[in-house]
Amino acid sequence: MAGGAIYPVGYLDGAYIPAGDVRLPLLAPGVTYAASVFEGVRGYVDHAGKGVNLFRLGEHMERLVRSTQILGLDDIPSAEEMGEVTLGLMARNGVREDCYIRIQVYLGGDGEMTARGPTGLAILARPRPQLADRLANGIRCQVSSWRRNTDNASPVRAKAAANYLNSRLAGLQAKADGYDTALILTESGTVSEAPGACLFMVRDNVLITPPVTSGILESLTRDTILRRARALGIVDDVVERPVDRTELYAASEVMLVGTGMEVVPVVGIDRLTVGSGARGPITRALQDDYFAIVRGGRDAPAQWLSPIPDLKETPQ
Ligand SMILES: Cc1ncc(COP(=O)(O)O)c(C=O)c1O
């Protein structure tokens, strides 16, 4: 959760408390056995400067509930309740800038690995400005020698803390070898995703992304890009299909998308240049559209934007 200082008000197990007091007990299986699931949500200042909207909050909370079901975490609040609690936290912090929120459901208790409860909910947030240089100039990636977790071992469809060991190993290797991040292949050798983002490529003016059965998180940014690319008609076709490693080398554009990553051009892979070696026109068009959408400057489904309310309108 890299970024600026954490906002002073946090949330833990039913109460808004000082952020520094949001801590999990060491013996909890949520810590020892990584029996915990989470969401990362971004907030963006409205294009008219009127306030801050959380992007696709409701669907992030629905994915969080699905993740708890896969991990067998019982008795959690509903998606709606967790959304309300999150908005209440941001109101209490008086947030007026671009920001990022981490919402975590964890297994508490005293150490039983297969326990289904007690479960807890922890939320912290911090400012998160956009990284203009990375968005404009792109990043370089290494196809990792680590393979993506398989669905029958550690399902990536759940946004589970445990899955990020796999992401971490790939990320560590990429950084040690001088790259910005990794691209991870499935056990069968097709392209899956990056440690914390999904992948799109452009070939012959067709936008292509691996399917949800390629060991990826069912990303909301991926969904946004798929819908927007189809609506904008900027490519001849938009396709979800398995992607071979060498297609990445043959692509005219590659990009990574995710809540944290946003829409970032990939300009090099395995020391080979992608396309022209600079941000391509389709990536640029999708970035421009995405940033207009998240800031409420272009038509998007109303439920995609959840405004942070004034504190006085928030249940105390
Ligand atoms: C492994 C992984 N894949 C993809 C994504 C992108 O998902 P989303 O667009 O819902 O943030 C994330 C999180 O940002 C992630 O952690």
Automatic annotation (TrEMBL):
Domain of life according to the entry: Bacteria
GO BP: any one term: isoleucine biosynthetic process
Top-level EC class: transferase
Entry keyword annotation includes Amino-acid biosynthesis: yes
Xref: InterPro entries: Aminotrans_IV (IPR001544), Aminotransferase-like (IPR036038), B_amino_transI (IPR005785), BCAT-like_C (IPR043132), BCAT-like_N (IPR043131), Class-IV_PLP-Dep_Aminotrnsfr (IPR050571)
Cofactor or coenzyme needed: pyridoxal 5'-phosphate
Gene Ontology MF term list: branched-chain-amino-acid transaminase activity
Record-listed E.C. numbers: 2.6.1.42
UniProt keyword Amino-acid biosynthesis, yes or no: yes
Pathway involvement of the protein, from the record: Amino-acid biosynthesis; L-valine biosynthesis; L-valine from pyruvate: step 4/4; Amino-acid biosynthesis; L-isoleucine biosynthesis; L-isoleucine from 2-oxobutanoate: step 4/4; Amino-acid biosynthesis; L-leucine biosynthesis; L-leucine from 3-methyl-2-oxobutanoate: step 4/4
Catalytic activity: L-isoleucine + 2-oxoglutarate = (S)-3-methyl-2-oxopentanoate + L-glutamate; L-valine + 2-oxoglutarate = 3-methyl-2-oxobutanoate + L-glutamate; L-leucine + 2-oxoglutarate = 4-methyl-2-oxopentanoate + L-glutamate
Assigned keywords, A-Z: Amino-acid biosynthesis, Aminotransferase, Branched-chain amino acid biosynthesis, Pyridoxal phosphate, Transferase
UniProt xrefs under PANTHER family: AMINO-ACID AMINOTRANSFERASE, AMINODEOXYCHORISMATE LYASE
Family label: Belongs to the class-IV pyridoxal-phosphate-dependent aminotransferase family.
Function: Acts on leucine, isoleucine and valine.
UniProt name for this protein: Branched-chain-amino-acid aminotransferase
